[in-house]
Amino acid sequence: MTVTFPQKGLPWLLLLPQLLVTAIFFLWPAEQALEQAFYQEDAFGLSREFIGLENFAALFTDPLYYQSMLTTLVFSFSVAIVGMSLALLLAVMADRVIRGKLAYQTLLIWPYAVAPALAGVLWWILFDPSMGPIALWLKSAGVDWNHYLNGNQAMILVVIASTWKQISYNFLFFLAGLQAVPRSLIEAAAIDGASPFKRFWTIVFPLLSPTTFFLLVVNLVYAFFETFGVIDATTKGGPGQSTTTLVYKVFNDGFVGLDLGGSAAQSVVLMAIVGLMTVIQFRFIERKVQYS
Amino acid sequence: MIENRPWLTFASHATLLTGIALVALPVWMALVASTHPASAFGAGHIPLWFGDAGAETWGTVLFEKAGNGVDTPVWFMMLNSLIMALGITFGKIAISLLSAYAIVFFRFPFRNLCFWIIFMTLMLPVEVRIVPTYEVVANLDLLNSYTGLTLPLIASATATFLFRQCFLSIPGELVEAARMDGAGPWRFFFDILLPLSRTNIAALFVILFIYGWNQYLWPLLITTDDAYYTLVMSIKRMLSVTDGDIAWNQIMATTLLAMLPPVAVVIGMQKLFVKGLVDSEK
Amino acid sequence: MHNLKLASVVVGLSIASSGFAATEIEWWHAMGGANGEKVNEIAKAFNDSQDAYEVKPVYKGNYTETMTSAIAAFRAKQQPAIVQVFEVGTASMMAAKGAIYPVYKLMKDSGQAFDESAYLSAVTGYYSNSDGQMLSMPFNSSTPVLYYNKDLFKKAGISQAPKTWQDVESVSNKLLASGVSCGFTTAWQSWIQLENLSARHNVPFASLENGFGGLKTELKFNGPLQVAHVQKMGEWQKNGIFSYSGRTNDGAAKFYSQECAMFTESSAGYAGIKRNAKFDFGVAELPYWEGKVKQPSNTIIGGASLWVLQGHSKEEYKGVASFLSYLSKASVQADWHQFSGYLPITKAAYDLTKEQGFYKANPGTETGVIQMTTGTPTANTKGLRLGNFVQIRGVIDEALESVWSGDVDAQTALNTAVERGNAQLRKFEKAND
């Protein structure tokens, strides 16, 4: 890609709207958040004192912050793995069937459109220990379901509620990936007598690996940043802090707890993590584009 | 199909149908709950089959008011949600097309810097920087306005990034040919680039519409005038009742209504959506 | 015909907007549901009663959403004149001296007749400064009581409501034996099982008069009484006497479905319970530990009060003052109290409600009022004034959950909570001194 237009002023004009919006609604507030991280301030902004790195020191000496990092990792990978496995299973099945493919696809993709906050509410009700149909069913099956008390069950609940929406998206990609697998390869293997399962694991799955990797990144990013509405609607980070992810913690400390300095420091750390992830992802995608 | 194994086909259908049933479970429950009086929920056990209070609930919610504490009917808030979602969608697509165009097809000083500045916005959700963003919007006197609802959410690079990927894959010869024909940058943009990005635009339309429609924390913070209340936000409001009953039946009906437009968009545009998504990933 | 109607509406609107420009007063509140409707009704009644001012109530979501919205608005100089702030936000509001307009001062400045002694001291004490001057106007106050299922009690052969926690234990055992699956559950665990537990036994929750004495206050809720209580509840969680149902009042479902026979919850939960309980229920005072205190003290309040924010015109403040006076009128208060289940804030409203025979017609509604107004509030029962209280409650919730789940013993959990909570207090002290 080297062919370009020679104009010098025009590109600036084209970029202007986006740069303007970014500067005003992202950089300006982000800069304020950055500044805030070095100050101790009361909620109303009446008094303000420079405290250097104290907010960060408090953050990094707080064992709960590391726990929240761990929670975030467990949560994100659970969402990614559960969501992708189920979607892959459904996609493989949908790829096999001849009749009703589009109907199945239609009936599986709609949850993608549902607001995380609403999805959270619905699942929360289904799993409510004293009235939720699923919880009651689990109880009759001998599982003492109480996510208000049991941190692992709370984690399962947020993972289910977050995964639900994401299955649609994963399903679409896997299905497209499966349909791109050359039939001739599979037919050749079938003639060699390979069972459908063997064919899947030795031929199809390896061919899906770029899609799988792409989805892994997308799902992790989703679980990291876009599930705060789900957590807020289901467990509010509890019990204890067993479902408090990093982003939920920023929201909870800043928006609910009004600890602006502390939550700003967390935002800065998040930005750093994001920056790092972006660079890695960017390098990967850049290389992929160049090679293809 | 390579060979015919009836049991496998049967298993496939069975798995798919189970999957669909599981996925639809929450909506089924919402639908059933909306046909019972609110107290059915409070009383402890959620009914699994329809009741007879449905007509009343749906009538109230649609045409009178969505629920206690939210005095506007659902259709009115849908309108606001629609304006907000479409504002975000079109705004973002427009500015992203232009900026991706500038970054890919022009060479100018600080090009990379510009790209990185835009790129930085990619993954810091508005919830995380919400208080300072609120101050900025308030300083610009944009509280209680459609501009205030949409503009701050447009500042994200997802779309720019996708278009950049798409443009990068356009063969250089095409640009060369266009230039030989004497096509200026604008003609190239409208006659070649836009048609080529059609599926991407469609996919983004779906993604952004859903994103815009589903916002709740931002509208909750910046609106105090019910002329600007959006639907998802109002559901959150109806849910957070202090010392009182939650009107579950109305909330469930409103929730289902709030799902309809984005679901319709996804399903209606699924062909283009899938194609656009899958193409841009490649 | 239709067009004519429309035209008259348009004309009407333009008159309304140009002719009499009543001074508009924004009131941000957190009252959803039926109470929210009532708030609108109250504002409308005030607006109809005069035409100089127009109070515009705006529902801003739950308590934290309302408070954070108001603070964000203040930072951007877009604040409403009146905002409803929950009791845990009191210290934050008080400390923001440049942001609030103390109610006693507002009333004086705008020449409104204002007699602080007309209010119930158990309510206003929470919102007054050390000189006894009211900084905010109590609006919706409540106090925890015990609701019990009379039907289940009868079935288990129990004739009396439990008075003490010892009673709760023995009654629960009888209930469990009769086939009920849980003795009691609680709403708002920190408020009821720690803050009010301490007040009821006249034990400090925090030093310096529970924080009323200054920002240097330190948490004290890891004392023997609290530890014993929490330890006991941990045991009860194991043997079924107690069943944890979350940090807010979601436990109501367990009470409605008759899974749990007793429920400690805010007095303001009365209306909801009355609507949803398909059984006969009674209201008893919050239990206390026999032997730990001779005469149980008054409980402390929860709920919210109305704060007036700085930055508005004199004219607006005059309107605010007259609205607050209107709110305190016995008839308005009595109506609000009877409708919502919140406590009356003036003696006159209490007397009026009695006169109207409301308590007789609705047995149990007076329990909270009586319990809260017994005796004179002491330093331990006036209320709590702690900075960053929202976070401290979060810390306490986490600690209690760790005891209920059996992970940690009560002493360790409460020690940790005190330590983490004190860190929040020091942070608040540093930001606000």
From TrEMBL, chain A:
<feature type="transmembrane region" description="Helical">
    <location>
        <begin position="73"/>
        <end position="94"/>
    </location>
</feature>
<comment type="subunit">
    <text>The complex is composed of two ATP-binding proteins (UgpC), two transmembrane proteins (UgpA and UgpE) and a solute-binding protein (UgpB).</text>
</comment>
<feature type="transmembrane region" description="Helical">
    <location>
        <begin position="106"/>
        <end position="127"/>
    </location>
</feature>
<dbReference type="InterPro" id="IPR035906">
    <property type="entry name" value="MetI-like_sf"/>
</dbReference>
<feature type="transmembrane region" description="Helical">
    <location>
        <begin position="12"/>
        <end position="30"/>
    </location>
</feature>
<keyword id="KW-0812">Transmembrane</keyword>
<feature type="transmembrane region" description="Helical">
    <location>
        <begin position="199"/>
        <end position="225"/>
    </location>
</feature>
<feature type="transmembrane region" description="Helical">
    <location>
        <begin position="154"/>
        <end position="178"/>
    </location>
</feature>
<keyword id="KW-0472">Membrane</keyword>
<dbReference type="InterPro" id="IPR000515">
    <property type="entry name" value="MetI-like"/>
</dbReference>
<protein>
    <recommendedName>
        <fullName>sn-glycerol-3-phosphate transport system permease protein UgpA</fullName>
    </recommendedName>
</protein>
<keyword id="KW-1133">Transmembrane helix</keyword>
<dbReference type="GO" id="GO:0055085">
    <property type="term" value="P:transmembrane transport"/>
</dbReference>
<keyword id="KW-0813">Transport</keyword>
<keyword id="KW-1003">Cell membrane</keyword>
TrEMBL record, chain B:
<dbReference type="InterPro" id="IPR035906">
    <property type="entry name" value="MetI-like_sf"/>
</dbReference>
<feature type="transmembrane region" description="Helical">
    <location>
        <begin position="188"/>
        <end position="211"/>
    </location>
</feature>
<feature type="transmembrane region" description="Helical">
    <location>
        <begin position="82"/>
        <end position="106"/>
    </location>
</feature>
<protein>
    <recommendedName>
        <fullName>sn-glycerol-3-phosphate transport system permease protein UgpE</fullName>
    </recommendedName>
</protein>
<dbReference type="GO" id="GO:0005886">
    <property type="term" value="C:plasma membrane"/>
</dbReference>
<comment type="function">
    <text>Part of the ABC transporter complex UgpBAEC involved in sn-glycerol-3-phosphate (G3P) import. Probably responsible for the translocation of the substrate across the membrane.</text>
</comment>
<keyword id="KW-1003">Cell membrane</keyword>
<feature type="transmembrane region" description="Helical">
    <location>
        <begin position="146"/>
        <end position="167"/>
    </location>
</feature>
<feature type="transmembrane region" description="Helical">
    <location>
        <begin position="113"/>
        <end position="134"/>
    </location>
</feature>
<keyword id="KW-1133">Transmembrane helix</keyword>
<comment type="subunit">
    <text>The complex is composed of two ATP-binding proteins (UgpC), two transmembrane proteins (UgpA and UgpE) and a solute-binding protein (UgpB).</text>
</comment>
<feature type="domain" description="ABC transmembrane type-1">
    <location>
        <begin position="78"/>
        <end position="269"/>
    </location>
</feature>
<keyword id="KW-0812">Transmembrane</keyword>
<feature type="transmembrane region" description="Helical">
    <location>
        <begin position="7"/>
        <end position="31"/>
    </location>
</feature>
<keyword id="KW-0472">Membrane</keyword>
From TrEMBL, chain C:
<dbReference type="GO" id="GO:0055085">
    <property type="term" value="P:transmembrane transport"/>
</dbReference>
<keyword id="KW-0574">Periplasm</keyword>
<keyword id="KW-0813">Transport</keyword>
<keyword id="KW-0732">Signal</keyword>
<dbReference type="InterPro" id="IPR050490">
    <property type="entry name" value="Bact_solute-bd_prot1"/>
</dbReference>
<dbReference type="InterPro" id="IPR006061">
    <property type="entry name" value="SBP_1_CS"/>
</dbReference>
<dbReference type="GO" id="GO:0042597">
    <property type="term" value="C:periplasmic space"/>
</dbReference>
<dbReference type="InterPro" id="IPR006059">
    <property type="entry name" value="SBP"/>
</dbReference>
<comment type="similarity">
    <text>Belongs to the bacterial solute-binding protein 1 family.</text>
</comment>
<feature type="signal peptide">
    <location>
        <begin position="1"/>
        <end position="21"/>
    </location>
</feature>
<comment type="subunit">
    <text>The complex is composed of two ATP-binding proteins (UgpC), two transmembrane proteins (UgpA and UgpE) and a solute-binding protein (UgpB).</text>
</comment>
<dbReference type="Pfam" id="PF13416">
    <property type="entry name" value="SBP_bac_8"/>
</dbReference>
<protein>
    <recommendedName>
        <fullName>sn-glycerol-3-phosphate-binding periplasmic protein UgpB</fullName>
    </recommendedName>
</protein>
